[in-house]
Amino acid sequence: MTDTPALNVLFLCTHNSARSILAEAVLNDLGAGRFRAFSAGSSPRPNQQPHPMALQALEKAGIDTAGLRSKSWDEFGGADAPPMDLVITVCDNAAGEVCPYWPGQPATAHWGYADPSEVEGSDAQRQEAFRQTLHAIRRRLELLVSLPAARLDKVVLASTARGLSRS
């Protein structure tokens, strides 16, 4: 085990109910203490909750869903918020929005994924969309967590994360 502190990663989307929730849970599962993941939305709806099919996809993959909740990105802009090392937008809407000031000036990247909650069809088809999104997010995060420490240094973290968007 290393004495290096965990890298804090914030995943952003508009409502914080599907893609960003999936990414938070997967990175916390894969991160093995090297990463701490959080998620938030630029404009979660009143009383927003994680999408039930996102939670179901995570549970079927054996990933813990305890403590997952939808929240506003305002929660991470204050002085008492954990300092972020990397902020990743996972939907195109959030990528185009003016983000708040993030204390510590973290590295940023955009990893776009189609919104599985917008898929129409049977429950099985909709659940498959969530499973595919989860799988795509997991593939990229497996690459991130397998990087050597030198690639995660703050100076190179932004280009490393942006490069993974092409993976």
**What percent of the residues sit in helical stretches (DSSP H or I)?**
25-40%
The topology string of helices and strands comes to: EHEHEHEHH
Question: What spatial order of strands do you see in the largest sheet?
Answer: 2-1-3-4
Question: Which runs of at least 5 residues are low in confidence (pLDDT < 50)?
Answer: none
Q: How far is it from the N-terminal to the C-terminal residue, by CA?
A: 28 Å
Could you say how many structural domains there are in total?
1
Overall pLDDT: 87
Quickly give the structural class.
alpha/beta
- What is the CATH homologous superfamily assignment? Response regulator
Assign the CATH topology.
Rossmann fold
Report the CATH architecture. Answer: 3-Layer(aba) Sandwich
CATH class: Alpha Beta
Number of strands: 4
Largest sheet: 4 strands, parallel
**Annotation field: number of helices:** 5
- The value of Rg in angstroms is 15 Å
Layout of secondary structure:
Layout lengths: L6 E7 L5 H12 L4 E7 L10 H9 L25 E4 L2 H4 L11 E4 L12 H23 L8 H11 L3
Parallel strand pairs: 1-2, 1-3, 3-4
Helix pairs in contact: 1-4, 2-4
Q: Can you describe what's shown?
A:
The protein is an alpha/beta fold. It has one domain: Rossmann fold (3-Layer(aba) Sandwich). It is 35% helix and 13% strand. The protein contains 5 helices and 4 strands. A 4-stranded parallel β-sheet has the order 2-1-3-4. α1 (19-30) packs across α4 (123-145) and α2 packs across α4. It starts with 6 loop residues before the first strand and ends with a helix. The mean pLDDT is 87.
